[in-house]
Amino acid sequence: MTDLDARRPVTVRGVTLGTGTPAVIVPLTARTPAELVAQAAPVVAARPDLVEWRVDHLLAGGSDLAAVVEAGRALVAALDGLPLLATIRTGAEGGELPMPGEEYLVVYRALLEAGIADLVDVELRHATAARVIAAAHDAGVPVVASNHDFDGTPDREEIERRLLAMAEQGADVLKIAVMPRSPEDVLTLLSATLAVRRRVDQPLITMAMAGTGVVSRLAGGVFGSAATFGTVGAASAPGQVEVDALRRTLALVHQD
Ligand SMILES: O=C1C[C@@](O)(C(=O)O)C[C@@H](O)[C@@H]1O
Question: What kind of fold does domain 21-254 have according to CATH?
Answer without folding.
Answer: TIM Barrel (3.20.20)
